[in-house]
Specification:
Length: 287
């Protein structure tokens, strides 16, 4: 329809011309208020980013250790709880998979997303085999093991990679610009030390790495054996599965165990101070 047709129609129309209805001032203000409430609510519900403290500020070793464990313990417990919730839901679905039941759409989508997070494909060649792999992978890491490895790999949170890239566990990456180039890297090497947006992201990657990388299959087998025996997976037991975490192999494993034993009291205090002990015990004792 062209402009002339519109004009002639307007001329023939003998009725009063109505101005476009303007939105109510109250309605507009209501929308603004609602938007503010939603944004504020999101800000309250969203976890606050955890900024790595300056652990060099603690001159006494004992105080530095206490501060390090106290800062990191609630993050580790929170990430373990996330994995534990995934495991609980997986255990609810598992019997239906074992019975050959066709899962509803939402369950199939959830299983597909979970499998992708743990570097598997759902349903894969066999639903039963993929389920067995998921039950081995979707599980928690004992908090003392995570805390001690973080302390060892980051120099109690003081390393360059911890301060500049929130990397507490020595993770490497291989794409150019993915992280921080080590100052002593060999000329023919291409790896970088991964950089993370937050400490929480570093912890989440660490747990996922232990749960997916082929090098840590021994750890996952030890954990599964303890689950099937009705025992809680323990840090000292799972440490034996870290034989390939470091080139030092057995010496590294023994050092991790030694640090765990030497810092039991401080780790326990950190867990209790943040009301994390019960949550950690629940995570460790999950089926």
């Amino acid at each position: 329809m062209n402009e002339e047709t519109e004009a002639s129609r307007a001329t023939r129309n003998k009725g009063p011309r109505l101005a476009p209805r303007q939105p109510s001032r109250w309605a507009s203000e209501g929308v603004v208020v609602l938007a503010i409430v939603l944004v504020a609510g999101y800000a309250l519900l969203r976890p606050a980013p955890e900024t790595l403290p300056d652990f060099n500020a603690f001159e006494r070793v004992e105080e530095r250790k206490q501060a390090f464990f106290g800062f990191l313990a609630p993050i580790v417990v929170s990430e373990n709880e996330r994995v534990l919730e995934q495991r609980r839901q997986l255990l609810e679905i598992a019997p239906r998979v074992a019975d050959g039941e066709r899962l509803p759409f939402l369950d199939r989508r959830w299983m597909k997303n979970l499998a992708a997070e743990y570097e598997l494909a759902w349903p894969g060649e066999s639903r039963e085999e993929t389920l067995a792999l998921l039950l081995r992978r979707v599980d928690t890491v004992p908090a003392p093991l995570a805390l001690v490895q973080a302390a060892k790999e980051s120099g109690w949170g003081r390393s360059r990679f911890a301060r500049q890239g929130n990397n507490l566990f020595g993770h490497w990456c291989y794409a150019r610009g993915c992280g921080i180039v080590p100052s002593r890297r060999n000329t023919d090497a291409a790896h970088e030390v991964a950089a993370f947006d937050s400490v929480r992201e570093s912890v989440r990657r660490y747990i996922n790495n232990l749960n997916t990388h082929p090098s840590y299959l021994p750890l996952r087998r030890i954990r599964l054996d303890e689950r099937e025996a009705g025992r809680r997976p323990q840090a000292l037991s799972l440490a034996d599965g870290l034989i390939r975490y470091s080139e030092r192999r057995e010496a590294y494993v023994e050092e991790i165990k030694q640090i765990i034993r030497a810092n039991r009291e401080l780790i326990g205090q950190a867990m209790n101070d943040d009301s994390a002990a019960s949550a950690s015990a629940a995570a460790a004792g999950a089926p």
